[in-house]
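Annex B, item 7. Sequence and structure tokens for protein A, then protein B.
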Amino acid sequence: MNSSVGNTARLIGAALRALLVLTVVCGIVYPLAVTGIAQAAFGGKANGSEVKDGSGRVVGSSLIGQTYTLPKSHPDDPAETAAPDLRWFQPRPSGGLGTNSVNTQYSLLLSGATNKAADNPELTRLVEDARAAVVRDNSTATYKVRPQDIPADAVTSSGSGLDPSISPQYAGLQVHRVAERNHLGVAQVERLVADHTEGRTLGFMGEPRVNVLELNVAIRELARG
């Protein structure tokens, strides 16, 4: 009996010591070490790839797409679609799964793809409407957008619906409109697009892209002079 109690006590003691050691190693030492390495080697990425404006204010993350729209005429009307603010480069169409219906304190778009087939009538209508909007919104007195020149990312959403980047071709279609709306020279805006165009990852993965948020921050700073 005494031997059994003693063995049980030793096992409990060993388990408690193991719990204490593992708690310290896995719950304190390891997280601190990983956090320290991440901050030292990848500070920007570890902090969420934050994008700051000229005053140092955080305006978003380079990993998550944003919308650039005008205020709604009736903010409480869920059926009203906000019009794009044409001063700024516009991102890909948003293909979220609908609006947030759980925590209604915030106006959130749920991420996700539509999963509509290529011959889905609703998808066809959305693409046609988006193409017409691209032509209408980006044509100016001196520059006309041709429907055949519109790239796919201008009229279709990404798998997440929150893609932060657009193709250089889509950015190029928007240059004249952005320049006109911000009273800038076309060459100035084209130079900013070129400066913010990223090549393929490691030279062969993915496609060239332009981060919309970073480009719009640069446009804002240039327009402010």
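Protein B:
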Amino acid sequence: GRITLTTPDSLVPLVTALLPLVRRKHAGIRFDLVVSNAFADMARYEAEVAIRPTRSPPETLVGQRAGAFRYAIYAKTGSATDLPWIALDDSLSAIPAARWLAVHVAEEETVLRVNSMWAAAQAAAAGLGQALLPDYLHRSFDLERRGGFIDTLESEVWLLVHPDLRRTPRIQAFMDLAAGKLRAQLKAG
């Protein structure tokens, strides 16, 4: 059968890396991937599985924690140390990284605001400035970490489903394989 997955853009490299593994074990499973920073309405089956970075998954969903990740400041490898900032716009204001930036980075230090972690990473890799990014995301770009990890921003990746779907064989098969693969990918960072 087909599984509709939803994930934010920052997790796309990790999610797409696990899909071939699932297909090798379960060739009959096909996927639709909805990339969005907004939570899908799982009660209306806009998606069957949500793969999300969060410290507190919605109580209306069930799932499993795939692993943890950390945030740090990244800039293009070899770039100057006094770069301006790439910040997150108001559409991402609820996430801890955006709140950290609002407290620690002055408006006049910001060269670009984006509505996507992926866009922030791309802009940083292009040399436009420095960005606060999840540690798993920098691996897709020519970025180096500036300083240590920001412990207060540590978060988790969760695989979540509507309770009505948790015992569906194709969903169970996906969840069993995906959680382990995501955990390994997050640890590799």
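Comment on protein B: The first helix runs from residue 12 to 25.
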